[in-house]
Amino acid sequence: MTFYQFAHLTLPLSDTVRTQGYLDPSHLKASDIFNHDDAATYQVDWDDFRAMFPLEDNSQYHTVILYRNRGIIAIRPTINRLLNTLRETFVFNYRADICRTVGQALQMNRLVPYACGNLMMIPGKANAYNHPSWIRYLKDQFYLSTGPDNTTFVEFEGIGSLKLNLSRRAMANRLKSLRFMAHAVNRYAAEIQVTNPPEPPRSQVAKSFTPSQFREQLDLAQARQIAQKLLGPDYDDEQIKRLVAEIRQNNFRQMDELSGQPDLE
Fold first, then answer.
1. Cβ–Cβ contacts within 10 Å for residue 43, how many?
2. Where are the alpha helices (DSSP H) in the chain?
3. Residue 199 — φ and ψ, nearest 5°?
4. pLDDT band at 251 (very low <50, low <70, confident <90, very high)
5. Measured between alpha carbons, how far is 24 from 147 in angstroms, rounded to an integer?
6. For 162-191, what is each residue's pLDDT tens digit?
7. What are phi and psi of 89, to 5 degrees?
8. Tens of pLDDT along 211-248?
9. From CA 240, how far away is CA 16, in angstroms rounded?
């Protein structure tokens, strides 16, 4: 296990991390970190980003970011302010698009994850100021293990382990929500062929759809994909309508009828 990325911690804490084998970000203070950025605004390097946590010691620094290559840094903007900057890099911003449109369409009312392009994140527990921590999910670079007292260890490849105050069940539920979110966003993107331009329009989804309209587009996209697999290119609008009805009822008993295949129960 590599702890190079924890080199920006003060020596006593760095030694503790090496001894116990993990970093507990809930106990971090700005004074524990050598690397600070004093700017009032900050642009996250989302490619290198792995996690961010609120700082609790009432200093001028409100957030700590863990990068894969750049290490740990304490910055002044809050986590909620950093979430607002997603719209400067990605097509979907967090609140208008992901929470209020896609999230509502998927009936996610709290702990809404973020998924767009190559960035997928799950929220942790919020602090007293309603600033949650955020953990990036990277397939094949993200490993979980159960810790004591309803905690979970997350190990990022090439960095080391973080101790999170989340039970294994809570983590599993967040990852499940993330899969649903990524699935919905990918279907939407495929349907309208969304790309990530250098200067993407703000509120890409929210400008186009209400939550109910997004849900309808999502169901249509899924129905077309199912029809393509079952029927090939020769499907008609009436079959799509029936597939949408089946999807909305979570009832696929008529799939064999639509495809001309026997019912295999």
1. 11
2. 11-20, 79-84, 104-105, 168-192, 211-231, 237-248, 255-259
3. -125, 80
4. very low
5. 12
6. 899 888 889 989 999 998 888 888 776 655
7. -120, -35
8. 676 667 767 766 776 666 666 777 777 777 777 676 66
9. 59
Give the residue from 175, 157, 179, 158 showing the smallest Cα distance to 166: 175
Written as one letter, the residue type at 52 is M
Q: Which residues pair with 257 in a beta bridge?
A: none
Amino acid identity for residue 262 in this structure: P
- The single-letter code of the amino acid at 222 is Q
- Residue 89 tokens read as 């890099």
DSSP assignment, residue 86? Answer: G
Q: Are the CB atoms for 99 and 112 separated by under 8 Å? A: yes
Give residue 204's identity as a one-letter amino acid code: Q
Per-residue pLDDT band for 129 (boundaries 50, 70, 90) equals low
Residue with tokens 């400067």: 88
Least confident stretch, 91-95, 131-135, 149-153, 255-259:
255-259
Q: What pLDDT does 253 receive?
A: 40
Q: Report the alpha-carbon distance of residue 217 to residue 223 in Å, rounded.
A: 10
Q: Report yes or no: 117 and 91 within 8 Å, Cβ to Cβ.
A: yes
Is the entire prediction scored with pTM above 0.85?
no
- What is the SS3 assignment for 2? coil
186 half-sphere exposure, CB direction, 13 A CA radius: 13
Which one-letter DSSP state was computed for residue 98? I
| Token pair in block for residue 144 | 């979980």
Are 125 and 166 contacting, i.e. CB atoms less than 8 angstroms apart? yes
